[in-house]
Specification:
With 113 residues, this protein is of the alpha+beta class. The chain has one domain. The protein has three helices and three strands, in the order H-H-E-H-E-E. It has a three-stranded antiparallel beta sheet. Strand 2 (77-86) and strand 3 (94-103) form a beta hairpin. The longest helix is centred in the first third of the chain and has 19 residues, at 9-27.
């Protein structure tokens, strides 16, 4: 007997991609990243990490790629760094998040993975 329901996996994959794209647009918005970098610089720092709160790999989103391209054109060093993350809520999950480490000046990005 054939299932009366349409395939569900494609819908899940599409919904996940749409949500990740939306999260990346917020996380990697140039105006907010610039503000974070200026805030760090005002504290004497020359490195900042842009980190998703959940175990997400947003490296291949358009927003991430546009930000990395702009940083590179500006001569600002950046690299992706893996970070293990476990939820602190009652819903148990764990995974790998990818932080964008941005550095300028004398600090250098040193991948730990």
């Amino acid at each position: 007997m054939k299932s009366p329901l349409a395939p569900f996996r494609p819908e899940l994959l599409n919904t996940t991609k749409e949500a990740q794209d939306a999260l990346a647009r917020k996380l990697y918005a140039a105006v907010d990243v610039k503000a974070a970098m200026l805030s760090a610089a005002r504290e004497g720092l020359s490195v900042v990490a842009i980190s998703p709160a959940a175990p997400l790999d947003l490296r291949h989103t358009e927003a991430a790629q546009v930000l990395v391209q702009w940083l590179t054109q500006e001569g600002i060093e950046c690299d992706w760094q893996e970070r293990s993350i476990v939820s602190k809520s009652s819903a148990l999950w764990a995974g790998i998040a990818y932080d964008l480490i941005i550095s300028w000046g004398h600090s250098r990005v040193i991948p730990t993975g």
